[in-house]
Write a structure and sequence with these properties.
The chain has about 180 residues and is mostly helical. It has one domain (about 1-175). It has helices at about 1-15, 25-45, 55-85, 110-135, 135-140, 145-175. Helix 2 packs antiparallel against helix 3 (about 55-85). The longest helix is centred in the middle third of the chain and has 32 residues, at about 55-85. It is extended, with a radius of gyration of 22 Å.
Length: about 180
Amino acid sequence: MTDKNSVETTFEKGLFASRWLMAPMYLGLAVTLAMLTVIFVKELVYYLPQVLELSAEKMILVALTLIDLTLAANLLLIVMFSGYESFVSKFDFDAGADKPGWMGKVDFGGLKMKLIASIVAISGIHLLKRFMEISDLDKATTFGETEMFWLVVIHLTFVVSGVLMALMDWLQARSYK
């Protein structure tokens, strides 16, 4: 009986240690965050010299692009920090006042909701950018009705998915009471 327990214990310890296989993935997300930062700076440097010549509509499109990149970066941070803390290991250092308020408090359900909310926001900004481009006849003809239809359908699918996920979490929480 002791032999079975030691095999089982060794197996369970190995299985538990396998969570560290996720660590390189979180490191890859940090590299992706750096890549997004490069793209953000590239966009900013590109449009900065043109700021006096930009129309209000074009400036809004530039701002939406930068917001879009920022939301994607926020999403990466949330997934990196919450995922690492939930599935690999707690952070072992004291970040003091710099520690985000949600860090260490977001469980898997909260992570799902933050993820879908970010996706809906990013999709909404992308859709808004396309709507604003309709006034540009060249882009309106290259980006036709069918594409706009599918952008709206995809965005609504994200919204409905988010609402259904929130409803499922709410129902699950009520079942534990």
